[in-house]
Design a protein that fits this description.
The protein is of the alpha/beta class. The protein folds into 2 domains: about 1-255, TIM Barrel (Alpha-Beta Barrel), CATH 3.20.20; about 265-325, no CATH class. About 40% of the residues lie in helices and about 20% in strands. The chain has helices at about 20-25, 35-45, 70-80, 100-105, 125-130, 135-150, 165-180, 195-200, 210-230, 240-245, 255-275, 290, 295-305, and strands spanning about 1-5, 55-60, 85-95, 110-120, 150-160, 185-190, 190, 230-235, 245-250, 280-285, 310-315, 325. The radius of gyration is 22 Å and the shape is globular. The N and C termini lie far apart (about 45 Å). Bound molecules: iron/sulfur cluster (SF4). The site of iron/sulfur cluster (SF4) has 10 residues, from loops.
Length: about 325
């Protein structure tokens, strides 16, 4: 579904997260919350209503931390602007501490479709190290309120953080399995100029994992979330020029998501080739580049490892993200 995104600048935020410099992340200037309705009206003047189904999204900032009065005003502006059938609702991202029963009741007056929570981690140690609230019960309560109301739930998680261990991922995955959000976004932590994390990095108190290690971590989430039917709709930070020029160090790559998918397919390929070195892989047409690998890396690696070219067929009979291997039992290739 098409999304019309409006980025709310940093307003009403405690500003304590060690990695955050929201102005750089969104490329927006800081505003007072009273400015937002006018900024929204100006933005809407230049928006062409899509011809297909669409949602309106408030991104950035902490939507439900805005005063109730301004929040209502913003939601009313949107509903007056898009009263038609193709308008499927409003989505926004917010902090779990800014969701409670009263806020949910206010939202009930509007056509809210999706709420995305910036959870970042379910590991208390990581949350503390990130300068975020470590009240896991409050997070879970916010998630339940959203789900009970029937809104779609998105969760944002952060990897490559200080204090992160393999147990952090096991814990996160356990929670995801139990809470079943509709989708997930994964952001590997990068060091941005002007943040507390930047000072920690300069002082030698934080070492960022390599891009390769970060991809391997994200792979764990792809693997498990696919099994549980949780969509991962984004991996890696967006290609925002103001962000890119301020990243000092960290696992940032313009095609981070593509790299993670390529690795996921690579692992699948190797697993199958361990069983039989001859046969065909069947893949969906949309997955060709992921199967071949970023810059055909998978093809090259397999060729170096096994000394032959990957054989594959493209078919619409399997879904995107799936990979089917049919071993050729008549082949003379060594299958050991
Ligand atoms: S990450 Fe979000 S909650 Fe944390 S300081 Fe930035 S805007 Fe505020």
């Amino acid at each position: 579904m098409k999304i019309i995104p409006f980025f709310i600048p940093e307003v009403k935020c405690s500003g304590k997260c060690i990695y955050c410099n929201q102005q750089i992340i969104t490329g927006e200037k800081k505003h007072s919350e009273n400015d937002i309705p006018n900024l929204l009206r100006e933005f809407l003047d230049n928006v062409k209503t899509p011809e297909s189904d669409f949602e309106f999204a408030f991104f950035g900032g902490t939507f439900t931390a805005i005063s109730k009065e301004i929040m209502r005003k913003l939601l009313e502006i949107i509903e007056i602007e898009f009263p038609q059938k193709r308008f499927k609702g409003i989505r926004f991202s917010t902090h779990p501490n800014s969701i409670n029963q009263e806020i949910i009741e206010t939202l009930s007056d509007f056509k809210i479709s999706t709420i995305e929570l910036g959870i970042q981690s379910f590991d208390k140690k990581v949350l503390k190290a990130l300068g975020r609230s470590d009240d896991i019960n409050r997070m879970i309560h916010a998630i339940k309120l959203i789900k009970d109301k029937g809104y779609k739930l998105g969760i944002q998680l952060m990897t490559c953080t200080p204090k992160e261990t393999i147990w952090t991922h096991i814990l996160n995955l356990k929670k995801l399995r139990a809470l079943r959000p509709d989708y997930l976004r994964i952001y590997p932590l990068v060091v941005i100029k002007g943040t507390t994390l930047y000072r920690m990095y300069l002082d030698g108190d934080f070492i960022s994992p390599s891009l390769e290690d970060s991809i391997k971590t994200t792979y764990l989430y792809i693997k498990k979330c696919r099994e549980w039917g949780i969509k991962i709709i984004r991996m890696g930070l967006k290609n925002e020029p103001s962000l890119k020029k301020n990243i000092v160090v960290g696992p940032y790559h313009e095609s981070y998501g593509e790299l993670c998918w390529s690795y996921f397919f690579y692992r699948h390929i190797v697993k199958n080739l361990r069983k039989s070195k001859s046969g065909f892989f069947y893949i969906n047409p949309v997955d060709i580049s992921k199967f071949l690998g970023y810059k055909r890396k998978n093809i090259k690696k397999i060729s170096n490892l096994y000394g032959f070219e990957l054989e594959y067929k493209i078919t619409n009979n399997i879904s995107s993200g799936e990979i089917l291997f049919q071993a050729d039992i008549n082949s003379g290739k060594d299958g050991n």
